[in-house]
Amino acid sequence: TLQLIKNGDIKIRGDIDFIENETVHFKRNDKEYFDAIIMATGYYRDYSNILKVDKSRFEDLKLPAGKQHYFGKDGLYFCGYWISPAGQIREIALDAKKIAKHISGSSRSI
Fold this sequence. Notes:
By secondary structure, the protein is of the alpha+beta class. The chain is 25% helix and 16% strand. The protein has 3 helices and 5 strands, in the order H-E-E-E-E-H-E-H. The strands form 2 sheets. It has a 3-stranded antiparallel β-sheet with strand order 1-2-3, with no helix packed on it. Strand 2 (23-26) and strand 3 (31-33) form a beta hairpin. The two termini are 26 Å apart.
């Protein structure tokens, strides 16, 4: 990851003001469009104040990624939100693979 940052393949950005569909609005008053946005915020779950999306998307996060109705809708993905009885780290790893497969356009099922 560090090498990708040094090469400029991964950009480090400032604080997010809010996200609207595929556009991230930053607190510096600039914005940028992204093909996909992955919301991986750790264990804090209430980021609904920065996302300009239908609030039913947050209800959907009570399900595992493979069963969510809005998984990847508008290029927005949530990683690690569903609290898994099998272990959170394991679930995050599974979510990450499902998200990567979905973004890459794989036709295999989640």
